[in-house]
Specification:
- This protein is α/β, with parallel strands linked by helices and 300 residues long.
- The protein has two domains: 76 residues, no CATH class; 204 residues, Rossmann fold.
- Helices cover 42% and strands 13% of the residues.
- It contains ten helices and nine strands.
- A hairpin with a 2-residue loop joins strand 2 and strand 3.
- Helix 2 crosses helix 5 and helix 8 crosses helix 9.
- The two termini are 35 Å apart.
């Protein structure tokens, strides 16, 4: 611990008592600030010690770093918080139960390519051109608002396209599979006392059929949104109805628009990298969390 003493007022060389008093006053002025810094470092060391005990014998410990960055959407002014990072994923030191809202397609269900195939099948009937693999990769780098123009689809026609894709998906949803590792992660999150919900542009019957077929019974509710850019309104209504604290709510999705919906609803966002949008695009929208593997979901 180092104290920096500023220039003292001029004193006589033999005025030892005066010098001692001035030094004491200078030290006392700096103690609160020094202690605050030392306390923040101590908290970080304690947290790292807990993690090291939990991961003892694992090389994963060496991947942990500590950054004094503020987490959450509404941090207290001047608050000092510690962020732990492992492979780019961030963990809070407070692990209390939360309200976790999940997107469905691409986040829980492995349906992204099925939706693409359905679109290509109905493209002829709707006077649209099919999407090539190369175009699909380009679309993964786009915001949802850019896709209609790229596909030459009118905004007025978009709701009808979405509805038809939903209806076609209904015929195949019983055969759709979950993302590998996601059902186990969901069960783990539920065991920790979290409330779990799904908010998706897919239909409630489609989602419930999928959950039943894949024996996923951990969700407290499923909600559908017809407007692909209207998820934030549904989130805000649920927060009001259930009287949730927005600070305890996280929206988990695979698209940039999911991050944007969370921001508009003033809640935290967690972006998963195994779905539709690329990791680069997700990072450009600054999610509160980045989840690169389903095994990281239980640590939200």
């Amino acid at each position: 611990m180092v104290f920096v003493i500023g220039k003292a007022d001029p004193v006589e060389a033999d005025d030892d008592v005066s010098v001692v008093h001035k030094l004491k006053r200078a030290l006392l002025k700096q103690i609160p600030a020094v202690l605050a810094r030392e306390w923040a470092v101590l908290q970080a060391l304690i947290t790292i010690g807990i993690i090291r005990r939990a991961f003892r014998g694992s090389s994963a410990v060496e991947q942990w770093t500590v950054n004094p960055l503020v987490l959450g959407s509404n941090p207290s002014p001047g608050a000092t918080q510690i962020r732990l990072e492992r492979g780019g994923f961030c963990y809070d030191d407070e692990m209390k139960p939360k309200v976790l809202l999940f997107d469905f397609d691409g986040t829980i269900a492995d349906t992204v390519f099925e939706v693409l195939q359905i679109y290509n099948r109905i493209a002829k009937d709707e006077g649209l051109r099919p999407i090539s693999p190369a175009e699909f990769e380009k679309m993964r780098q786009m915001n949802a608002s850019e896709v209609p123009a790229f596909l030459h689809v009118s905004i007025l026609k978009l709701p009808f396209i979405v509805k038809r894709v939903r209806n076609e998906l209904k015929k195949q949803i019983a055969y759709a599979r979950p993302i590998q590792g996601v059902p186990e992660a969901i069960r783990s999150l539920k065991k920790k006392g979290n409330e779990l919900y799904i908010i998706s542009t897919n239909s409630v019957p489609n989602i419930n059929t999928f959950l039943t077929k894949n024996t996923i019974h951990d969700f407290d509710g499923v909600f559908s949104v017809s407007d692909i850019f209207g998820k934030h309104r549904k989130i805000l209504r649920l927060i009001k109805t259930h009287e949730w604290d927005p600070a305890d709510v996280v929206y988990i999705g695979d698209e940039a628009r999911d991050i944007d919906a969370a921001k508009h609803a003033k809640i935290a966002s967690a972006a998963v990298t195994w779905g539709f949008n690329s990791e680069a695009l997700l990072m450009a929208h600054h999610p509160d969390r980045l989840v690169r593997a389903p095994s990281e979901l239980p640590l939200l």
